[in-house]
Amino acid sequence: MFSFRNSGGFASATLTAMNTMIMFNLMGVVNQLPGALCRLFRRAKLWWFREVQITIPEQGREWHMYNRVFSAAECYLGAMFSDRALRMKAGTDRTGRSIVLTVDDAEEIVDEFLPAAMEKKEKKKAGAIKVTWRYHCQQIEKGSARLWNNEKKYYTLTFDARHRPEVVNEYLEHVMETSNAIEMRNRQRKLYTNSMGGGDRLWTQVEFKHPASFATLAMDPKKKQAIMDDLETFSKSQDYYAKIGKAWKRGYLLYGPPGTGKSTMIACMANFLDYDVYDIELTAIRHNTDLRRLIVNTTGKSIIVIEDIDCSLQLSGARGEARKEKKVKEPKEKKAKESKEKGESKVTLSGLLNFIDGLWSACGGERLIVFTTNHVEKLDPALIRRGRMDMHVELGHCEFEAFKVLAKNYLEVEAHPLFEKVRELLAAVKISPADVAEQLMPKNIRAHDKATGCLQDLLHALQTLLEKQSINGI
Ligand SMILES: Nc1ncnc2c1ncn2[C@@H]1O[C@H](COP(=O)(O)OP(=O)(O)OP(=O)(O)O)[C@@H](O)[C@H]1O
Ligand SMILES: [Mg+2]
């Protein structure tokens, strides 16, 4: 059979021509050739080296859709090769704030990977599989209806034909997974709420930017570590939940007096797990079906929060009735009662229980449900039983260990001669971390020794509180 490679002089002439072309290619000369010549060279190269080429256009199959593989390739190459590629393009991300580097036109990138299916020995022998990425941007004549602009952008991925299964089945999957992970890391987290009158939209969203972290949360260090461990275990237990047949969600009940850090802890959790937050205002929901609609429209990797659950609705049956008769109402309770009386909300306890463990609450997966309350004793036991609210976390008055965290945050001091006196008084006085934090805020920016001044203020406040509490017999 006739074959170019075995045809003597002609073959060697072709070989020489190809080698010359490769040399030119290496020198970057081919990139400078006119478009048609450049394409001809690449086709010849594919044929000569038995290469396969996959084209990844920017535009998806539907004219109005973006091709996810194209954006994944853009993200992957930008992240993996921004320190190696010689020509890059700088732009901003969707928020317009962070700089994103992408590979420039005419830049060729060689990536390597080891397919998982290969035996270890084989891998050693064969080495890594090489693939070549290239970005193309062609100017198109005006008037083409199928194009968004006058440029046709696409990537080509070229590799040896022998590695087709590995590249198609594994490498492209790896590119998609890596880019998803990068996007997840860089994404802007959102705070959603149902109470801001977002028109037809169920949820109104704003960017979630809360600086709280577990490092700055003042509470017993062992308790804090246990919560962090629990959260981490939860976030890595997808397979386990699937194995035991449970929806991948976890309920947290945070309870304690005002100003002890319940809302702050929710922000810490969201930052720790990199989750979005859905803050549900129950009094703004008219019916159980509306609550269901809201829940179905939440996404995974999120925390669904209902603050002050005891005041949001009259959920505690007989105890709720008793509360109605109290003459003096706390402001939160009063507000909730007023909205209830106006007939604004008809969400019931059973509606709420369905929200926690109903079938539809499992949609999406990986969700925390967090309730907060100042009065845990007023809640219906059915609402907070284990299995619904898996973790009950009490946030209490400020103790010395918690104070030390606050002193470090606010004053940048880890030890001070006045600490001993603070320790003594904190053991005798009930004060919230919010009140301690208030005393530790520097009041005079020009003061020479801010720490001593603030600690003296705190001691004075503690002393006054001690006297008040001993008069009232607290
Ligand atoms: N444990 C804490 N660690 C660090 N800061 C705290 C802590 N508790 C309270 N603070 C500070 O006090 C402020 C009020 O705290 P937060 O809103 O979290 O209290 P809360 O328990 O949610 O109160 P409420 O029951 O009234 O809703 C916070 O902005 C934070 O600065
Ligand atoms: Mg709060």
UniProtKB/TrEMBL annotation:
Gene Ontology process terms (BP): response to stress
GO terms of molecular function: ATP binding; ATP hydrolysis activity
Iron keyword on record: no
Region described as Disordered: spans on this chain: 322-342
Reactions listed under catalytic activity: ATP + H2O = ADP + phosphate + H(+)
Keyword flag Protein biosynthesis: no
Reported cofactor(s): Mg(2+)
Domain annotation AAA+ ATPase: ranges: 248-399
Keywords (A to Z) from UniProt: ATP-binding, Magnesium, Nucleotide-binding
Source domain of life: Eukaryota
Family the UniProt entry places it in: Belongs to the AAA ATPase family. BCS1 subfamily.
Protein name in the entry: AAA+ ATPase domain-containing protein
Protein's organism: Zingiber officinale
Lineage: Eukaryota, Viridiplantae, Streptophyta, Embryophyta, Tracheophyta
